[in-house]
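Notebook entry, cofactor series.
This is the third protein in the set we're modelling with a bound small molecule. For this one the ligand is S-adenosylmethionine. I'm keeping the input format identical across the series so the outputs can be compared line by line later. Sequence and SMILES below, as received.
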Amino acid sequence: MPEKPTEDARFYGRRKGKPLRATRQRLLDTMLPALTLPLAGLGEGERLDPHGLFPRPVDQLWLEIGFGGGEHLVAQAAAHPEVGLIGSEVFAYGVGKALSQIDETGVDNIRLWPEDVRQVLPALPDGCLQRLFVLFPDPWPKRRHARRRMIQPARLDDFARLLADGGELRVASDDMGYVRWTLMHVTAHPAFRWTAQGPTDWRERPADWVETRYEAKALLAGRKPAYLIFRRRPRAAVPGTLAEAPAGEGADNNP
Ligand SMILES: C[S@@+](CC[C@H](N)C(=O)[O-])C[C@H]1O[C@@H](n2cnc3c(N)ncnc32)[C@H](O)[C@@H]1O
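Returned structure with ligand:
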């Protein structure tokens, strides 16, 4: 079994909420074991073969971190049967909700990690991901909690290792402090560039981006989210210093 990360024990919010409905609990008991990533069988330093996880060959592998109720994860899996999706979520209620949607839709291209995603990241091979989604991460707005944020330098190093050249990191948030934090850290990382050419590129939800529960809540409350897409630079072209990063990218785009 992978070790529990020690970096910050309270990295995420709650794991358990209201009691699960009997049907969801049954899905957790019966369906989840077959869909759970087989991390327990890995030896020291061994990595998963992600393409062997699915019942048929997949062209690409995508990862969603903190999928909440699984709306986005399941909709993307249904829209892209040629893609294998891994979803990680610590909140048992959300995992149960995702399982009932997987059951209803019959999608077979999702694998789950119902625990901290920091246990999955080291088990995946370099460059295996074409897309990585971090949608409406917990904002941890207090300065003293900043190290619990999903977007931070150590995690971006993980993401840079895992994303294939040209792969996408998609981050959304309705918390403008978190949006600025994300832009500051991701654009400072030499492996990433922000793809936005102008404000509409981050103010409007891209057509293939499925609305999540937190996004719907934010919109209902009148908060306009930012939708950020970063591209992993080709490894050969990653500049050694920030000063070599191309000028002008993301210019005039400040949220
Ligand atoms: C604010 S919610 C957003 C949920 C969903 N993405 C949405 O937009 O509706 C953030 C989610 O990230 C999950 N989360 C936080 N840290 C996590 C971690 N280390 N591993 C897996 N999930 C995590 C939380 O349990 C929570 O459900």
